[in-house]
Amino acid sequence: MSETRMTERAAELDAADGLAKRRELFALDDGTVYLDGNSLGALPRHVRDRMADVIGRQWGELRIRSWDESGWWTAPERIGERIAPLVGAAPGQVVVGDSTSVNVFKAVVAAVRMAPEGRDEILVDATTFPTDGYIAESAARLTGHRTVVVDPADVPDAVGPRTAAALVNHVDYRTGRLHDLPGITAALHERGALAVWDLCHSAGALPVGLDEHGVDLAVGCTYKYLNGGPGSPAYLYVAERHQDRFDSPLPGWNSHADPFGMTRGYTPAEGAVRGRVGTPDILSMLALEAALDVWDGVTVEAVRAKSLALTDFFLECVEAYVPRGRVTSLTPAAHAERGSQVALACPDAPAVMESLIARGVVGDLRRPDVLRFGFTPLYVGFVDTERAARVLAEVLAAADSPAGG
Amino acid sequence: MSETRMTERAAELDAADGLAKRRELFALDDGTVYLDGNSLGALPRHVRDRMADVIGRQWGELRIRSWDESGWWTAPERIGERIAPLVGAAPGQVVVGDSTSVNVFKAVVAAVRMAPEGRDEILVDATTFPTDGYIAESAARLTGHRTVVVDPADVPDAVGPRTAAALVNHVDYRTGRLHDLPGITAALHERGALAVWDLCHSAGALPVGLDEHGVDLAVGCTYKYLNGGPGSPAYLYVAERHQDRFDSPLPGWNSHADPFGMTRGYTPAEGAVRGRVGTPDILSMLALEAALDVWDGVTVEAVRAKSLALTDFFLECVEAYVPRGRVTSLTPAAHAERGSQVALACPDAPAVMESLIARGVVGDLRRPDVLRFGFTPLYVGFVDTERAARVLAEVLAAADSPAGG
């Protein structure tokens, strides 16, 4: 199909897009096509003023009183409630704080402590973002378990009487493959093991359905599709039915039933609060809270529909513009297996991504040879998408021309 | 001594105070006497503008590029280098990130892993801020150790052939007592055990001398005397001689030798970076970095001298104004045993602190009966100090009057 036809279609798709106006909420005025929201979400404009108030008034004027009066102390669970509907969790099960890595540690240790007696194996996603694997290994070492590395698709076959729990990424950070959360969770449960899911690359991009699918524990970051800001705090989901048995390896004073009693003995709080550890990093946390306002009035189902339309359209444009075989999509064509990014293998990926960024199309690189393009439906449109594919084709053509690229 | 004489002396002391002008760097324009900097440091004024730039330009405009171009990725170790001189550490040994509780966990697990074989006990400060005790207990449980609770002064007698490490608070959060870091550290080393110090209530208020006294590991928060903001990230010190053997229980991808290699196997980075875990919370971290500017040109020795003068003067004013026996100082009179706060036991402490705060003297309460007054030499003056004691006396007199208080 011709470039002109694609451009026209892109404009039509944007015109028909019910989410198109959301883009105005974000600081994206520089003409960049920002396809790296799966690494760092763009800035919701109002966060800057909100933080000026948090810093200037809440910290600067109210000072210590803000722990009560500005709701600082309860921020971890309050913001957890804002995230809960985005991951399909009823209230009281999500708490915000610490990094994803730290939450993976809490979740994996807690999971193996809840598992039936005598089970000594933790299944770990072979394609996981690396930190999960490193942390699971540490959790295993500290709790007398061993890790078994398996592809997510093979978890149902690998789970056995020795399996305590499995730690799986919902969407593969590299390829954008969406794994079968309901099926894998059910297979684990059938054999008495627990399911711990990492939602970093799915939350905010597609429906997760934690409660619906009976997930036991989950973690995720908030700086990708949730736009919480660089290194904004992660979250932990503990299914209500497990909360009484949630036995944290990081029982900091914020998770105590009476934190200001300051007693020598540890008595865990009830509910999701039990997943807290130390004093929450309020500035990062309240920036996240403000950022979540962009979700008001938006359903994750609408976001998912647009996400699939964007990635479909991008793949279509790439096919139309780029010579066959020059790049290879690592992202599944089937919707049921696709997250919200497109990963293209490309032998000269480092140089190509550098040129793309220089031309205002910002994706990122996963070494050695993967071009990653993340599609955040709240601020990426179809015209952006067509432009990204067109610029990619130009960059590849330049690289392949006799003059070199 | 008369009130008039005390007021005059206070003004003289302020006039002679070389640090007095530092107060202008802080947002303290509301007439409050802020004696709660040992809980939440006051706002350094310039942090607000700095954060507007971090949010608006670094995140909003540069977006993902800021991980390199704005120095986000290296913030944990860069800010560690700013804190290092304040705690007496040569470069390369301090890294910032995570909460104090999480850093206590790293430090205690790493310490027992470094300790000589066959040692199964961790000595824990009986007067510790509670989170350290809870976390040490968790670390002990996960590593096959047991905790032994001892008063800091008794550590030298309690350390024995079974002691792997001791975790001690440098300054008692409740009483303000300063413990003998050099002596306790030496006693531990003499019997082959490691010293882990919690500096939350000492760093930024007095010289710590980590290198000088051969401390093995240390942690501390940055939101008290370092004014980093609510819940700003904590730090971890690992003495250079131990860094090769620092075996983190939280080996997140940020501590990997090649984090962007994203390899399945974990290879720890060299140096203090090994203490990192997940993606750093950049907003909180860069607010802390900005806040540390108030230390430019100030020595911790000068701060210590003023701190002792302030707490001496406060105790003197309290003695002059408050009827004998109405309150009892829990803070040692000896300089060598005093941190930077004064704790007064008072039977009706909750009501008294409420009245103090209503009259613009902000300290805090430690249940059931302790009034805490923290003295931050960078922004508390002698006139403030006299006023605090005077208002305290008024509040107590009102409470004791026939009309009740």
Automatic annotation (TrEMBL), chains A, B:
Positions of pyridoxal 5'-phosphate binding: T100, S101, F129, P130, T131, D132, D198, H201, Y223, W253, T279
Single GO term (MF): kynureninase activity
Any single biological process term in GO: L-tryptophan catabolic process to kynurenine
EC number: 3.7.1.3
Top-rank EC class of the record's enzyme: hydrolase
Cofactor(s) listed: pyridoxal 5'-phosphate
Keywords noted in UniProt: Hydrolase, Pyridine nucleotide biosynthesis, Pyridoxal phosphate
Reactions this protein catalyses: 3-hydroxy-L-kynurenine + H2O = 3-hydroxyanthranilate + L-alanine + H(+); L-kynurenine + H2O = anthranilate + L-alanine + H(+)
GO cellular component, one term: cytoplasm
PANTHER family registered for this protein in UniProt: KYNURENINASE
Family of the protein in this entry: Belongs to the kynureninase family.
Assembly with partners or alone: Homodimer.
Protein name: Kynureninase
Taxonomic source organism: Streptomyces marianii
